[in-house]
Amino acid sequence: MTIYLPPLDENDPEDFPSVTTALEEPDGLLAIGGDLSPQRLRAAYERGIFPWFGDDEPYLWWSPSERAVIDPLTFVPSKSLKKYARKQNIRVSMNYRFDDVIEHCALIRGAHNVWITQEMRDAYKKLHRQGGAHSVEVWQDDKLIGGLYGVSIGTLFCGESMFSLETNASKIALWRFCEHFKKHGGKLIDCQMMTEHLATLGATPLSRPDFIRKLDQLKHRMTDASLFQSQWIDGATHA
C-alpha cells in the first residue's frame, strides 16, 4: 500500500497540515520532513503534533486519534509510593540535569528500540536551553535514579519520556511533578499515546478533537513564572 504524506517546508517552521488529515493507519501519521529546530518543535506542540521516528528514518510527525492525558488536579499517589519515597531518602528536583535525563531515557530502551535518536536529543537539549523543554530529576542520596522530560505549552505539559534506574523512580517523578505543576497553575499533562503502563499511573484517553479543544484553551494561558526554575520540588534543600 502506498502512503502519501505531505512534505513540510524546511524554510517555514509553521508549515503543518491540519491534524484532521492524519492517517488512520498507521494511526496519527501526519507529515514528513521539515527540521527539528526549536521553532518547528514549538509550532508542532502548539498544534497537537509531535515528532517520532527512528535512526535512518526521515522526520515523521504524528497526531494520534486518541491521546493519553493525566489531570494533575486529581492525581493521587499510592500510600505505598509515599512510604517508599520517605524510606529510601528520595529527593526530586526540576531542571537541574536535563541533558542527563534525556540521555538516560534513550539508553534504557536499548540500541534497537531508540526513537530518542541523537538528533532528537540534540534538538530537545537546544529547546531546553531556550526555555521550552524541562526535566524532573529523582535522586537517592546523590545518585540520579529516575526522571522525566517534556515540553511546556501554556498550562499544558507535553510529556515525552521517563526512566527509572531504581524501583518507583519514574512514578515518584510524575507524582512530585503533578504536585508542583498544579501548585503553579498547570492544568493538564499530555502523555501522547495510551499504554497499559500509563493507565496504571492514572492516564485516561481523550479523543483527538477533545484534546485539540483542550490544547487551544490551555496554550494561551500562563503558569506562574517560577514553575520551571531550577529548584527542589519536594521541600528538600540543595546540598
Structure description:
The chain is of the alpha+beta class and 239 residues long. It is built from seven helices and twelve strands. The protein has helices at residues 38-45, 79-87, 98-107, 118-129, 169-183, 196-200, 208-218, and strands at residues 7-8, 29-33, 50-51, 60-62, 66-70, 90-94, 133-140, 143-153, 156-164, 188-190, 204-207, 231-232. The protein has an eight-stranded mixed β-sheet, with helices on both faces. Helix 3 packs antiparallel against helix 4. It starts with 6 loop residues before the first strand and ends in a 7-residue tail after the last strand. The mean pLDDT is 93.
Which terms summarize this structure?
239 residues, 12 strands, eight-stranded mixed sheet, alpha+beta
